[in-house]
Amino acid sequence: MNPGVMIAALLGGLFFWRKAPSKGAKLSKNFKVSEFLKSSTFPNLRNYELTPAEYENLSALVVGILQPVRDKFGKVVITGGGRPHSVAAAKGTTWHRALGARGLRPAKDSDHADFSAADIDVPGARLDDVYEFIKTLPATRQVILEYTRNKSGAPVMTHIHVAAQTTSKGRHRSFAFRDVPREAKA
């Protein structure tokens, strides 16, 4: 029997539970769990153990969106991964408050909290082309092309926020552009 699987009888039926893989585990041919556990705001995120539900969400994101982007455009850099509430609470704050202090405007009900979203950059590719491609993928629930403005006021694309369809989220799909304050860092 696979040690990662525990079978227990529950109310006359079977309940299956699978432990989420380690941080070094591969989610696809080009992505590891550890890539989504990095934060300069909360360095202890690297020690976080994903729940099985979080792992399922992250797998949907990687397999359904990020790996196809990697296959088409090349290297994908994760600039913002998971943001579980417990990691921020252990430091006496929230992700919303900590990122807001850096000039960012995170959503209070962020998809990053359950590992169904990531912020990405794709070096060498036009982010507007990547954005248009992501919109075509069936696994995409949300994609936002984030930008700031240069000194003359012209928009400069900075990164893409992408969220996957998961069993805990609705089927609503949204596509948007969002202006990020110049002094903010993703």
Distance between the termini: 43 Å
Number of helices in the DSSP assignment: 4
Shape: globular
- Contiguous runs where pLDDT drops below 50 for at least 5 residues: 1-17
Largest beta sheet: strand ordering: 3-4-6-5-7
CATH fold title = Muramoyl-pentapeptide Carboxypeptidase, domain 2
Q: How many extended strands?
A: 7
Strand content: 25-35%
Tell me the domain tally.
1
CATH class: Alpha Beta
Instruction: Please identify the structural class as seen in this structure.
Output: alpha+beta
CATH architecture: 2-Layer Sandwich
The mean pLDDT is: 78
Largest sheet features:
5 strands, mixed
Radius of gyration, taken over Cα atoms and rounded to an integer in Å: 17 Å
Q: What's the SSE pattern?
A: EEHEHHEHEEE
| Share of residues in helices | 10-25%
Please tell me about this protein's structure:
By secondary structure, the chain is an alpha+beta fold. The chain has one domain (21-179): Muramoyl-pentapeptide Carboxypeptidase, domain 2 (2-Layer Sandwich). The protein is 24% helix and 25% strand. The protein is built from 4 helices and 7 strands. The chain has helices spanning 52-73, 85-90, 95-100, 127-136, and strands at residues 5-10, 13-18, 77-80, 117-121, 140-149, 155-164, 174-179. The strands form 2 sheets. It has a 5-stranded mixed sheet with strand order 3-4-6-5-7. A hairpin with a 5-residue loop joins β5 and β6. The chain is globular and about 40 Å long. Residues 1-17 have low confidence and may be disordered.
